[in-house]
Structure formats: structure tokens, C-alpha cells
Design goal:
It is a single chain. This protein starts with a helix and ends with a helix. The protein has one domain: nmb1532 protein domain like (Four Helix Bundle (Hemerythrin (Met), subunit A), Up-down Bundle), CATH 1.20.120. It has 179 residues and is mainly α. The protein contains 5 helices and no strands. Helix content is 87%, strand content 0%.
Length: 179
């Protein structure tokens, strides 16, 4: 089994969430008000699942291992683009959080920024995923032998197992500081 299988499965779930976000964004535009609870859920999904879990495995496992290899200029260029796209996604998500916080505090003008950030994310993820699926993940597997692929796959599963513990430990630690 190639390590890209689980990553591509994760892409399908991210795509489904992006469709939900698109639908909710249209609803917010139509109604002229933000769904603050949904935004918090969407941000949690993007930060935890899409970024920390999915992008984390790409950056902390696949890209790390690719940097040890002699890869083509094209693949190196795409890898650098993907890393930069991950950074951009994090920035837009942070803007969405800030706009939602201002909206919750009574700043109705923040709705436009909420919608703009959601539009950016809804446009960003399908292009990003297509680049990974069609132009990167499968082609770069040629740089690895079966044992290396198996080791990355195992590390990815271990990464996933640790993630839930990390998330909830952070929630408790934030509560301890506030309590």
C-alpha cells in the first residue's frame, strides 16, 4: 500500500467539508448574518483535520523524507508551492477566526470578511487538492522503495493516534490557565 492512499482518502473528506462550507457561505450571504457556531466548527475542522492532521503528515513525514532524496526540479518546485499554500491556508483561516470573533462582539461589518475568508478557502482547497492528487503524490512515490513507503504509512498512523491526545490536552491546558 502506498502512503498516498490515506492522504487521498483525507482529501475526499476535506472536499466534502468544503462543499458544506460553500453551502453555508451562500446561506450567510442570503440571510445577511453569520452562523457563528458553524464557523467555529469549520475552523476546528480546517485547523485540526485539514491542517494539523493532513498537512502535518505531508510536511512532517512525506516532505521531510522527500528532502532526503534527490528529486526532480519540478517535484521540488511543487513541494515548495504546497508548503506555501499550506501557510496561506493558515493565514486565511486565522482571518476567519478574527472576523468571527469581531462579529460575535457585535461588529456586523465583520460579516463581509467572514464571507470573503470562506470564499477564499472554498476556492483554495479544490485547487490545492487537485495539485497534490494529480501532480505530486503519485509521481513522487517513485523516489521510495516499499520499505520506505511502509515506514511512512506506519508513521502516519502513529501521527493520527497522537493527534487526538494532543488536541484535548491543549484544551485542558487552556482551561487550567483560565481556571
Amino acid at each position: 500500500m502506498m502512503p498516498v492512499g490515506p492522504m487521498m482518502i483525507e482529501h475526499r473528506l476535506i472536499e466534502r467539508m468544503i462543499k458544506v462550507m460553500d453551502s453555508k457561505m451562500v446561506e450567510m450571504k442570503t440571510e445577511g448574518k453569520a452562523d457563528m457556531a458553524f464557523i467555529e466548527t469549520a475552523v476546528d475542522f480546517i485547523r485540526t483535520y485539514a491542517d494539523r492532521c493532513h498537512h502535518g503528515k505531508e510536511e512532517d513525514i512525506l516532505f521531510r523524507e522527500l528532502k532526503k532524496k534527490t528529486i526532480s526540479q519540478e517535484h521540488h518546485k511543487i513541494m515548495e508551492e504546497l508548503i506555501e499554500e499550506h501557510r496561506q491556508g493558515r493565514k486565511v483561516t486565522s482571518k476567519l477566526v478574527e472576523a468571527n470573533e469581531r462579529y460575535m462582539a457585535g461588529d456586523s461589518k465583520a460579516l463581509d470578511e467572514i464571507i470573503e475568508s470562506m470564499q477564499t478557502l472554498v476556492a483554495f482547497y479544490p485547487r490545492h487538492i487537485e495539485k497534490e492528487d494529480k501532480h505530486f503524490f503519485i509521481p513522487v512515490m517513485k523516489y521510495f522503495n516499499k520499505d520506505e513507503k511502509d515506514a511512512m504509512l506506519k508513521e502516519g498512523y502513529e501521527f493520527d493516534q497522537g493527534l487526538i491526545h494532543e488536541k484535548y490536552r491543549q484544551i485542558v491546558e487552556r482551561g487550567d490557565k483560565n481556571g
